[in-house]
């Protein structure tokens, strides 16, 4: 059965692969699962048909027969659980890979989201320029710890896993900030993920959507 | 095998069950799994022995034989996957329950963490009073959507699951704000979780740690 995901008709990231369909596309490419994409507009995301799939009116969603899921981490996990290649067979290694998925979303991403809020939502507020260094220090605390744990390894825990896929997706949100370059092993880690053929296919697919929307 | 978790020697929440050992204790109580607790101090959390278990120097951790995990969501998931009672048997219902775990951590919690940062970390900053209403509106957007999805149901998707356990843990962080009372069905949902015998046992256990530390 070919699953259908949703993605932005016109992504606000201008095709840089920062929208949340990207990790889902990447996971599907890693396991070799073809998929279909239904594009939704910003107004369409808030309509009842989409809200029935995604209570928070966002993308991506994932439909496969009777199953409808939302939340990119949950969708990546579902794909990883039902295909080989994104979770180790060993039970303990599998639990640790899942831990890295949760760590990416629960520990690394929150201060990065705060940064996005400061840069965009609160851009014109008096305090934004003063707050940004405070936020960046909180991000650095997390990156330093992550960098220390990764060390010289290629991936966070043995083989490439869904934990790396989600973590790299989160770290890519910092690309424009230049902060990753302060941690060379993290920059190399992200580059290693981006060099995977499955990442390239996923990236190109979402970029093609942006290009088509811009031409249209 | 009896797992060992870590918790604060002296929790900054003064025993209100908002520290992240609480969802782990609650999950263990729901499935009837006895556990041991090792208390760690704030300085101890940053020492090498603890950092080897938790790269971000926080609590909780979870040790079970050769397995060491961190990140409360990942630990709750591990417990749910290895015991009956926190995830439905039906594959689709199970995937949806896992989706709610990720939604709690990835969608509901980030603006709530921003609120905590504004209230505590940036408490004395000039902008905090002005920013708080903006943050609260972002929280309300998420709560309104969650409230709409929950409707009159007892739990988010059929039976009580790890998704509800994590979601209620996240919503309880808003207790002191009074915001939950704007959404009566969410208040009732949290109260329903707090009334579960397993929640009470977990709450009492963490409260006893706080009481002992205060007396000591």
Automatic annotation (TrEMBL), chains A, B:
It comes from the Bacteria. Pfam families: GST_C_2, GST_N. Residues 8-87 form the GST N-terminal domain. This is Glutathione S-transferase family protein. Residues 90-215 form the GST C-terminal domain. CDD domains: GST_C_8 (cd03207), GST_N_GTT1_like (cd03046). InterPro entries: Glutathione-S-Trfase_C-like, Glutathione-S-Trfase_C_sf, Glutathione_S-Trfase, Glutathione_S-Trfase_N, Thioredoxin-like_sf.
């Amino acid at each position: 059965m070919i699953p259908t995901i949703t993605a932005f008709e016109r992504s606000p990231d201008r095709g840089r692969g920062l929208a949340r369909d990207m990790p889902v596309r990447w996971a599907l490419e890693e396991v070799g699962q073809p998929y279909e994409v239904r594009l939704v507009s910003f107004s369409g995301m808030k309509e009842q048909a989409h809200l029935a799939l995604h209570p928070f009116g966002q993308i991506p969603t994932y439909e496969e027969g009777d199953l409808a899921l939302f939340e990119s981490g949950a969708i990546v996990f579902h794909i990883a659980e039902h295909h080989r290649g994104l979770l180790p067979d060993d039970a303990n290694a599998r639990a640790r890979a899942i831990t890295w998925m949760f760590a990416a979303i629960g520990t690394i991403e929150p201060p990065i989201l705060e940064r996005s809020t400061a840069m965009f939502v609160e851009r014109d507020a008096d305090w934004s320029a003063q707050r940004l260094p405070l936020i960046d220090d909180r991000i650095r605390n997390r990156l330093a710890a992550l960098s220390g744990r990764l060390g010289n390894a290629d991936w966070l825990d043995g083989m490439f896993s869904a934990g790396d896929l989600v973590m790299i997706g989160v770290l890519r949100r910092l690309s424009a900030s230049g902060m990753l370059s302060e941690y060379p092993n993290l920059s190399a880690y992200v580059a290693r993920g981006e060099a995977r053929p499955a990442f390239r296919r996923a990236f190109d697919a979402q970029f093609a959507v942006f290009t088509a929307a811009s031409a249209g």
